[in-house]
Amino acid sequence: MGLRFDNIPLSAYDGIIRKLFGHLNLQDKMNHYECVCPFCGDMKQAHKRKLWIYKDTWKTTCFKGCFDGSLLKFLQENYPDEYHELITYAITDDDNRAGDKKPAEKPLVQRVVPTLPFMPGELVSLSDPTDPLAKKARDICAGRRIRKDVYETWFACRTGEQFYHRNPDGSIQYYPGTTRPIGNEYRHRIIMPYYKFGGLWGQFDARDMDPKSEQRYLNFKGVRREAYNIDFVDFTKRFYILEGLLDSTFIRNSIAIGGISHLAETMADNPKIRKYINNAVVIWDNPYNDVAGRQASVSAISKQFRWFDWEGIASKDINAAVLAGEMPLDSSGYVDPAFLERRIREKDMADIVMTMRFGNIQKDMFKAKMEARRNAMKNNTHIQNNKHSISFI
């Protein structure tokens, strides 16, 4: 057996760190973790008062000198059980060793995070206790029963002409041929980042705080679409694939792909989904009241995914079902995993259940497609006949 440390999921590191040091004033910063050293305690200096674990290299440093080395070595010397727990992820089969015919799976290259479309001061953290816009956003999130530890990592986008792009002479820039100014396009919206491991983000969803908005959500269209929470999923355990970000915050070990049309792209970008497909479950919007959800469920089942059974649930999605009391939450604010497990349908059973309840959806989709094609041909023929017709007065 060989060892490949890049096989260790980021969520496994995170879980071990929270397990061991969560009670030691653990703080999850953008590029590192901080906590009180379990061996020598705290320090008075604000910048050197704790044990630091850097997320990019996993170097672990005690500023009083207890330790300075890799996290794995730190665990090996002080927490052998947790060390062996992490090492199990790194164990590979013999045919993955160097020199064998079957090459080891290469880790994905991290995509470069682009410049975000916000001006300085345009965003306010939802953890800001004094800002009225942040409070309004927090109230909306709390009303949706989103956990505080989630929404306090989000932002609200302020409104104001000071955030418009300017020409060298100070005048406002407009989109060509329009009177629409460039900039502040996500004003009065809750900004929900797609964080990468280490704290950076280059994709986000922006939810309008106006309940009457005709366009409730916007995402950053200037970058390639990514899956929300993809860096933090442990594929070796049960994991879930959902449509929307908000729904994903209620399901442990889940990702959101921003719409069912992105499933193939997400799978291509993340080969481990296919590798561990036996652990995967898709939860699309309720197929009982959503035609797209029914069609997407059939498509996912054909790709060998397990499927969540919505029978008896009237709400359209997970967040709505939570608010309606149709999905029970555990003490941490997640949907009860036992409730989810009871409603998971195996691949073959899912196909049978879908057919019994909704008929042959694939056949219906084909009929609808052919009918649309026939109508298009009729309309085209009618247009061509009108072009060649001659009117006499």
Question: Could you please describe the fold and organization of this structure?
Answer:
The chain folds into 3 domains: 2-96, DNA Primase, Chain A (Alpha-Beta Complex); 123-166 and 180-219, DNA primase DNAg catalytic core, N-terminal domain (Alpha-Beta Complex); 230-361, Dna Topoisomerase Vi A Subunit, Chain: A, domain 2, CATH 3.40.1360. Helix content is 32%, strand content 16%. It contains 13 helices and 17 strands. Strand 5 and strand 6 form a beta hairpin. Helix 2 (71-78) crosses helix 3 (80-90) and helix 9 runs antiparallel to helix 12.
Please describe the structure with a list of short key phrases separated by commas or semicolons.
alpha+beta; 32% helix; 17 strands; globular; DNA Primase, Chain A; Dna Topoisomerase Vi A Subunit, Chain: A, domain 2; DNA primase DNAg catalytic core, N-terminal domain; five-stranded antiparallel β-sheet; 16% strand; 393 residues
Number of helices, counting only DSSP H or I runs of 4 residues or more: 13
Q: What is the succession of H and E elements?
A: EHEEEEEHHEEHHEEEEEHEHHEHEHHEHH
Distance between the termini: 91 Å
According to CATH, what is the topology of the largest domain?
A: Dna Topoisomerase Vi A Subunit, Chain: A, domain 2
Task: Break the fold down into its secondary structure elements and pairings.
Layout: E1 2-3, H1 10-21, E2 27-28, E3 32-35, E4 51-54, E5 59-62, E6 68-70, H2 71-78, H3 80-90, E7 91-92, E8 123-125, H4 132-143, H5 148-151, E9 155-157, E10 189-195, E11 201-208, E12 217-219, E13 239-242, H6 245-248, E14 254-256, H7 263-269, H8 272-275, E15 280-283, H9 291-302, E16 306-308, H10 318-323, H11 337-342, E17 344-345, H12 347-358, H13 361-388
Parallel strand pairs: 13-14, 13-15, 15-16
Antiparallel strand pairs: 1-7, 2-3, 3-4, 4-5, 5-6, 8-9, 9-10, 10-11, 11-12, 16-17
